[in-house]
Amino acid sequence: MGDREELDRLDLELHARLRDGDPTAFEELYRRYAPGAYGLALRVTGHELLAQEVAHDAFLALWRAPEAFDPSRGPFRSFFLSLVHHRAVDTVRREERLRRRTDRAANLEPFLGEDVAEDVVEEAWIASRRTEVRKALTELPDEQRRVVEMAYFGGMTQAAIAQELRIPLGTVKTRTLAAMQKLRRFLETSE
Amino acid sequence: MNEHEPDAPAASGGPGASRPWAPPGQPVDHARIDELLAGHALHALDGSDQLEAERILTEHLPTCERCRGTVSQFRAITADLAFASRPKEPPEMLLPRLRMETLAVPVDQSPQTRPPAAHRMSKIGSWLSAAAAIVLIGLILWNAFLHVRLSQLTGTQSDFNKATNVISQPDTKRVTLDSFHTRAPVLFGYREEQVVLQGLDVEAPATGNVYRLWLGKDHDRFRFVHDFKPRGGVVALVLDFDARKYDRIVITEEPESARPTQPGSDVRWSATLKATPVASGSDQPAA
């Protein structure tokens, strides 16, 4: 098993069972998405305890209100990882005073040197998609990749990015849009 | 694409800025809308830009198929970006913690989708049996865990997790230690060949002093078990020691240089244990 359609179908099935209050479906979704959720939260927050709280809150929110996921708006994994990302960014902004600049810099290290997954078993499609997304990011011009990384993984607002990079806010917006459009092309063609 | 240099006032969406979408019949500034939607998808807007993006989503999107498509594509990209981070197994206590909390928080279901009560109780019952060992103390421990200071070392957190694992075992007996000196909660647990001590917000002993853990039986015969100092307010000890034949635990504060022959008079915590008959064997402590 490993193709995207099969992954989506199983997610939908698990989500339907979750809506019925089935705790085993919750555990299966946890098994499938906890490493991705925790890894994302860790990358954004740069702190294990905060990342744990983000993952915890996201899974608890999923249990409390599974109907928040609307299958007509995209796959479950997109919904859930977006939920995790939003919570992680909100956490970073709340805890900003606790983060040192060096932590942030470490968070934004390039992806290429990393092992894709240490001791984490993933669905084949997810592992493959992970590689594609990383490749797409590396193909962006540096200045465009930088603003996307600072926003998405650094949890920074565009205004904060402009201040940090000492460039006009409009430039940040333009680079962000250009990066998103390129990513769309890269990722559409690799699907 | 040309970059804005310098920032154009309209792009900043200030109080006097015009809306990028226009009344019917007039041209719409889709370039600016796209910029706002891109920033919104990355959760990177604030202030007036955020308000502007939200108004686009609620007022303009319902009438613009192009922008609905853009939002959908940007959402897909941000979802994909999550995959660029390295997956990592979360701490092993996260799932047990979620199990406990989901027991207390039922799924928010509409009456139409809610299963029959008996069916639901049966499912919850199956979880209860799995989580029963930790439910009693889990909420207390995890509530305390949340207060572990962010500045603490990873090693301390790891020790705390190990202690939590031992103290959560179904065969571990647990005792909360009493203190006249401090309100810091300290929990002692013991099971066959293993003891655990766990506390939070425990103040450090005076300079040159340590805390000493003693176990006693028959009122006055005490055996020294271990010296310790809290790290960042955290006590998390797991020792190989059979405490089942003892009926009392005492923690004293003593000079580190003093030989641990019998408990000093400065008792910080104490509690009575329920001694159980056991076969004689090794009970040498080893951290």
What does this structure look like?
The complex is a heterodimer of chains A (191) and B (287). Chain A is built from 9 helices and no strands. Chain A is mainly α and 191 residues long. Chain A folds into 2 domains: 1-99, RNA polymerase sigma factor, region 2, helix turn helix motif (Rna Polymerase Sigma Factor, Chain: A, Orthogonal Bundle); 108-191, Orthogonal Bundle (Arc Repressor Mutant, subunit A), CATH 1.10.10. Chain B has 7 helices and 8 strands. Chain B has 287 residues and is of the alpha+beta class. Chain B starts with 8 loop residues before the first helix and ends in a 15-residue tail after the last strand. Residues 4-17, 107-121, 149-153 and 278-287 of chain B have low confidence and may be disordered. In chain B, a hairpin with a 2-residue loop joins strand 2 and strand 3. Chain B has 3 domains: 9-84, no CATH class; 94-107 and 115-145, no CATH class; 154-272, Immunoglobulin-like (Sandwich), CATH 2.60.40. Chains A and B meet through helix 2, helix 3, helix 4, helix 6 and helix 7 of A and helix 2, helix 4, helix 5 and helix 6 of B.
